[in-house]
Protein: Neuroblastoma breakpoint family member 6-like protein
Amino acid sequence: MAVSPATLSGPRKEMSILESNQYLLSQLEESKQKLQDLREKYLTSKATAFSLANHLQKYGCEEYKELIKSVLEEELQSEEGGVAEELRRGARLGKSDSLFQAQAQELTYLRQKIQEGRGVCYLFAQHVKNAVKSFESVLRSTETAYYTCFI
Structure:
């Protein structure tokens, strides 16, 4: 009653290979998608760094002049360089993370001040309207009193 391994493993072996192949193809697709996502995140962070460096340069931040220069130069070189070079530059950009965080905090603070300023402007405008109405009322009552004296 002994069955040879060749007769049992033939169809099962083919099915196992097909299943493995399908599994590996799905893993490959997943990996390609993850790689694409990472590339998009990398390009987004690179564009953000370039944009922030432009803003800092525009406002003349002397304190970070060297960092700004290196980020702006990296943008020009990235068009010529490869991925390995980009990764090395990315490591240097990691050092500037504190700069970006400080700028983000400053922007948040300035937005808050703008909101407070809007509130103050609204209150001031209301105060001026009320003062004008009071002045007009006083003026009308003065005119009425003036005309009644001569009648």
Residues 99-151 form one domain. The chain is about 90% helix and 0% strand.
